[in-house]
Every structure is written in structure tokens, then in C-alpha cells.
């Protein structure tokens, strides 16, 4: 009886996996390999379109200082350049922590987060997880790591109505992303798990105790991977962030201000 149940489970699991694999957005991912993603914020929701022409706010990874994009790697996905889309060690640690009574945390890689943002909804289900897994594996097979990271940085949410590192850099610091210093990059990376909540520091014009702890942790990790020196770590850890001083506007007005100010330069 037990053997039959195991065989049935394997059969059903295989059929479900096969079905979900057929749902992988192969054509869209193939197009993405040689294209860009355009963010369109309409009716308080984000829409993504794959386009061949580079969007004017698109930040090229090659143009960014190493400390900018590595702030996101050490914060979100330490093993990004070494795994194939899924970090089994992170999954193991997340399960272990949960079994030890800690809150279940995410173990998604940057590649998985890109798939999640572009192709899946936010609900948690086994079906969505399997779909996400297959799609991530296909994404890793078709796109280079640099292309995945570049696309991720250009579509991820940094606050209400703020998508992509170009908008975020200009809104929070009135800088282009290639002008960010390590602490500013660490702040933007700190926002990602929950930007609407973690951006409280910007609203207060001063890092909260929690934000300061996370930002300094990211800076320390940048030192560990030798992106910044120990001397730079000390300097930036002791420095203050200079947030843009304008009052936070409504999403509509905020977007218009970003458009007007950024493209006047």
C-alpha cells in the first residue's frame, strides 16, 4: 500500500511538474536575452513590456561602479555568480531557521526574484514555486549573469511608484546611479525586502536604528568581498546620508518631478 502511494505521489508530481514546465514563458525569456524591460506605472500598478530599444532610464551594468551593484549582491544573493539560479544552501538555512522557531524567511535568488516580478503573482503556493523554479532554470540557461542582474536592477521596486535604480537614485539622493557612493548604494539595497516600510529613514531624513544596522552590515560585506577597503568602510560607516530635501509628493506628482528633473540634465 505504501509503495503504491509513493508511486502515485511520484506520478502526480511528475505530471504536475511536466505541466508547469510547459507554462514557462519561453518566448518572453528568449526575447529578453537581447532586449530590455520597460516599466510602465499605470493606475497604481506596474506593467512590464519587453522592448528592443533601450529605455531612456535604463542603467547599464557596465556603467555602474562595482560597489553599486555589489551592494545588492551581498544583500540579496551572496552567491549570485556561483549558483545556477537556485541557492540550495540558502533554502536549507531558511528551513533550518524556521524549524528552530524563527519566522520563515525568503531564500529567493536574484534570478528567482526577477522571474517573480516579471511573470508570477505574489501569492505563495506550491504550484507557483514550481513554476518559478522551472522558469528560473530556463532564465539562467538563456541569459548571462550580468544581463539578469542588470534587468533586475532596472525593474525592482524601491518605493511606492518607484521602479528601477535610476528612479530610486534620483528620488532619494538626486544622483544618477553611477554617481552613488557605497553608503547610498547600501541604503538602496537595504530597501528591497520591503521598500514602503524601510523607506521610513528617507521620510525622517535620518537612518532609523534598524536601517543603520543593515546599511552598515552591507558595507561590511562589501569590505569582505574586497569591493571597498577597510579605510573606506570606516569612512562611510561614520558618514551621514544626505537625502533629497524635497517633501514627498503623491505618486503622480512624484513621477512627474522625476521625469522633469532627471531629463533636464
From TrEMBL:
Glycosyl transferase family domain residues: 50-215
> At the top level of its lineage, which domain of life is listed?
Bacteria
Whether Ligase counts among this entry's keywords is: no
- Write out the pathway annotation from the protein's UniProt entry: Cell wall biogenesis; peptidoglycan biosynthesis
Query: Matching Pfam families, A to Z?
Result: Transgly
Alphabetical list of InterPro entries matching this protein: Glyco_trans_51, Glycosyltr_51/Transpeptidase, Lysozyme-like_dom_sf, PBP_transglycosylase
Q: Does the keyword Ubl conjugation apply?
A: no
Q: Where in the cell is it found?
A: Membrane
Per the UniProt record, the source organism is Halobacteriovorax vibrionivorans
What are the entry keywords? Cell shape, Cell wall biogenesis/degradation, Membrane, Peptidoglycan synthesis, Transferase, Transmembrane, Transmembrane helix
Protein's name according to its UniProt entry: Glycosyl transferase family 51 domain-containing protein
